[in-house]
Amino acid sequence: MHKSVIVVATAVCIVSYSSCTCPNTFNNALLELHYGIVYKGHNTTFNGCVRGNSDITRIVLRTPTMNIFKGTFSNLTVLDYLALDNANLHVIEAQFAENLPKLRTFSASMNQIREIGYNVLNNLPLKNIYLSINTISEIANGAFSGMDLVYLHLNNNELHSINSNWFLNTTIKGLYLSSNHIELLWTETFSGIIGMETLDLGRNKIHYIDCDTFSTQRSLESLFMKGNSLLNLDFDIGSNLQVLDVSFNMIFSTSLERMTNVEAIIILPNPWVCKCLEKLVNESKLLNIKIMQRVAERTQERLNAPICVVADTTCGNNVAPVNTVHREYFRRVHYAKIIRYWVQWRSYPHDFENRNITFKRNWIQCFK
Ligand SMILES: *[C@@H]1O[C@H](CO)[C@@H](O)[C@H](O)[C@H]1NC(C)=O
Ligand SMILES: *[C@@H]1O[C@H](CO)[C@@H](O)[C@H](O)[C@H]1NC(C)=O
Ligand SMILES: *[C@@H]1O[C@H](CO)[C@@H](O)[C@H](O)[C@H]1NC(C)=O
Ligand SMILES: *[C@@H]1O[C@H](CO)[C@@H](O)[C@H](O)[C@H]1NC(C)=O
Ligand SMILES: *[C@@H]1O[C@H](CO)[C@@H](O)[C@H](O)[C@H]1NC(C)=O
After folding, report:
1. Is 146 near ligand 3, meaning CB less than 6 Å away?
2. For ligand 3, atom 10: residue with the closest CA
3. Which of 70, 135, 212, 358 could form a cystine bridge with 187, CB 3.0-4.6 A?
4. Cα separations (Å) of 21 from 16, 33, 49, 93?
């Protein structure tokens, strides 16, 4: 009988703290804890907080838990890794974690988190943040301010725009924002970010990019924008960009004049006007830019995209051709999540000239 009383009492705090008054956070959640230098795990259940411990290096939450309240994790002097993935999390309160001087990785992917507030993460010394596959649609001003990050993963969420105020004096090497609903990029969108090397904006709805959006990102090496709605490449890119992926967009005619330092552009498939693609290929040779294409791992007809779809005899003016061929193209050619793609170098002009581009008005033929 006394035993059960003791169990309840110790369940309030992982490490009994004489004056511990944790909010009731978890309902007998299971935590996998890893202690100290000798890497050994053990599981424990608790209802309250994890506080004042100098041995725990990793915490993995194993039980679905709706809310993580303020003060849940604090004064854990060697904690390096905190994972709350796939835990049915809806809310992470500001200051849920405090005084974790060694915390480098926070992961809360595959939850139902809708919002990242101020002082949820920006008060922690993190390097890596994984928030993929949630329902995040709101991020507070300053939510990542002053941080020095290697990876920030926000892909597969419900973001409709990027607010430049999320990042103020923020260092991020790799920013992953694919599979959201972002439409527009402005000059100031990334202006609070320093040292960005990789930016993934794939599978959004981007149809407009301000000319200077990327020009101040001097470290940017890889920019992935596959599966958006871009009509052209009418924007500047940082001087260091090596790879630009704009496959699966709506490009039918564009110039490389703003892309002069890029090494390779993945620009196929797109619904090209054949003559405009030919012009681009000529331009790419002059500028020494590689033209590449994405191809599906398993060739299925719907992914065996034509190299160009409008067989006009000139590369005429910049009115997007909308006709039955185009509608058929977009019905069949899209970037599918479940299919694996790789990037293939097309050696022009050989491949290009081998194709019977005068026949492209007939969709079924040009699909081969
Ligand atoms: C902790 O519990 C989880 C889930 O029941 C289990 O997979 C894991 O092996 C346990 N870890 C230890 C160290 O007992
Ligand atoms: C954390 O440690 C500081 C300094 O030892 C102490 O003042 C504070 O009360 C502790 N906080 C919690 C929540 O345990
Ligand atoms: C930016 O952050 C660095 C360290 O991360 C800091 O030294 C510097 O003072 C900050 N600058 C501003 C303007 O906040
Ligand atoms: C591309 O270059 C080839 C060879 O110089 C030339 O015959 C062709 O007319 C050019 N095409 C376009 C569209 O400029
Ligand atoms: C190109 O297509 C046209 C129309 O079907 C055909 O008459 C012609 O022989 C084809 N040319 C080549 C080189 O395959």
Report:
1. yes
2. 169
3. 212
4. 11, 21, 9, 17
